[in-house]
Design a protein that fits this description.
By secondary structure, the chain is α/β, with parallel strands linked by helices. It has helices spanning 4-11, 24-30, 35-57, 76-100, 115-127, 144-160, 171-175, 223-235, and strands spanning 16-20, 61-68, 102-107, 134-142, 188-191, 210-213. It is 45% helix and 15% strand. Strands 3-4-2-1-5-6 form a six-stranded parallel sheet, sandwiched between helices.
């Protein structure tokens, strides 16, 4: 009998899946644990998904929303724990990333991150540059509106410098200055924990993305549930604004 994994791969794995990893705090609260325990469990869930996407699924690009620009508003102790956890996760998994052909990239303002995390990110990006199995893009200190404003500033600078005419500003010109300029737009965006919004995530890139929402809290999100989301995605008809043939 054909397995779900085999069917999903047969029907065509999308080029880019992005995940809003939500629900760590609620997962911990439901178990009477501190929020830090939820973030730790969330990191383990991310590890499972990354390993599955690269080793078994053959997904070309996976973006994980790890820390938003709005997350700085959380209590200082929680932010510090998250920064340390992210640095530890990247350092701990670096050798595996290299061995498994995972290429790490980061979307966001890394210059505002604590020194140890900046160093971990820079080292991982450098040492995984030759990875050709999975592109793991981590949205870190990332905000979609901020990204678009940054791209517009760069386009304006090109116009001011005479390198671009105003009539040459089109969607492609702006997209060329996004963090994801060398990545395909996400085909599917998954959000866990029951919330049904993008929360400032990949606002430009998600113009024609399919959206999948699940009540599952992120630490409980498994490769099996990702497969289910992909199977549902494959049943949808993506028209990118075009009419159905029968209409």
């Amino acid at each position: 009998m054909t397995t779900l994994l085999e069917r999903v791969k047969r029907d065509g794995v999308p080029q880019h899946v992005a995940i809003i990893m939500d629900g760590n705090g609620r997962w911990a609260r439901a178990r009477g644990l501190p929020r830090s325990a939820g973030h730790h469990a969330g990191a383990r869930a991310a590890e499972q998904i990354v390993r599955f996407a690269g080793r078994r699924l053959g997904l070309p690009v996976l973006t994980l929303y790890a820390f938003s620009t709005e997350n700085w508003q959380r209590p200082a102790g929680e932010v510090e724990y998250l920064m340390d956890l992210l640095a530890s996760f990247i350092n701990e998994k670096l050798r595996e990333f290299v061995d498994e052909g995972v290429r790490l990239s980061v979307s966001g303002e890394t210059g505002d991150l604590p020194g140890p995390l900046q160093a971990a990110v820079e080292r991982a990006v450098r040492e995984t540059a030759d990875g050709d199995r999975l592109r793991l893009n981590v949205a870190l200190n990332y905000g979609g509106r901020q990204e678009i404003a940054r791209a517009c500033r760069r386009v304006a600078s090109e116009v001011a410098g005479g390198r671009l005419r105003p009539d040459q500003i089109d969607p492609a010109a702006i997209a060329a200055h996004l963090y994801t300029a060398d990545l395909p737009d996400p085909d599917l965006i998954v959000r866990t924990s029951g919330e049904q919004r993008l929360s400032n995530f990949l606002l430009w890139q998600s113009a024609y993305s399919e959206l999948h929402f699940t009540d599952t809290l992120w630490p409980d999100f498994t490769p099996a549930e990702l497969l289910g989301a992909l199977a549902e995605y494959q049943r949808r008809e993506r028209r990118f604004g075009a009419r159905r043939e029968a209409e």
